[in-house]
Write a structure and sequence with these properties.
Layout: E1 16-19, H1 25-36, E2 40-45, H2 49-61, E3 65-70, H3 76-90, E4 95-98, H4 120-148, E5 151-158, H5 169-189, E6 194-201, H6 215-224, H7 233-244, E7 255-258
Parallel strand pairs: 1-2, 1-4, 2-3, 4-5, 5-6, 6-7
Amino acid sequence: MINNQTVIPALLSDKVVIVTGASRGLGAQIAQQMAAAGASVCVNYLKSKQAADQVVAEIEKAGGQAFAYQGDVTDLAQMQAMAAQVIERFGRIDVLVNNALPSYQFNPSADYTSIETVQWAHFSQQIDGIVRGAVNTVQAVLPQMKTQQMGKIINISTNLVYNPVVTYYDYTTAKSALIGLTRNLAAELGQYGIRVNLLAGGLLKTTDASKLTTEEVFDYIATTTPLRQATSVADFANSVLLMASDLGAAITGQSIAVDGGLTMP
């Protein structure tokens, strides 16, 4: 369900959007708010079919257009098939949001939080899911975006790349790589009218990853940010809307923290 949102219904009118990892959490919120702003949305998921179908049902109940598509972002052929299905249904692809994330536990005492115990297998799992996944989705949508001579690619990262308050070596390293990917894509694809940006979130209130976080922790985060409040999932999704819309036409190659000013890269 969409909560505490502020969207302009015509902001993405006639736009077609793909959101990866959109069956729950932040991805679901982004998909719903994109649809509320007028976009037709492909809700990509890997395993959570029932949850993805529920996201689509809520979008349609609110008068929007969406469909769920099962596909593994680490498989290029599956992403190409997804792009083809989107084009068949809606005729174009305007926005790609790379939100999909490999299964991960944000556990400060886990093996992957120390350089002495982290294993390369930890790194490879995250790099494969996050970086390879983004490369595959970009390669899948690129022919259509080049044909259109326009498009928006939005990569989702974390503010831990700027301030590793917990040293999640594998996750943060993979998310950091998205910064380099974003800048290279922006440099190459700008000539085709394609903008590429990265948005880095903090601890969002509330997602599956943060559902066990206590109010005391959220209150502490709020007191350390200039805005004196924790960033909500809806607030972050609205930042994605800005980048996806024509209002962000002059912005490309940027890595922007969406965390109330907690980090200022």
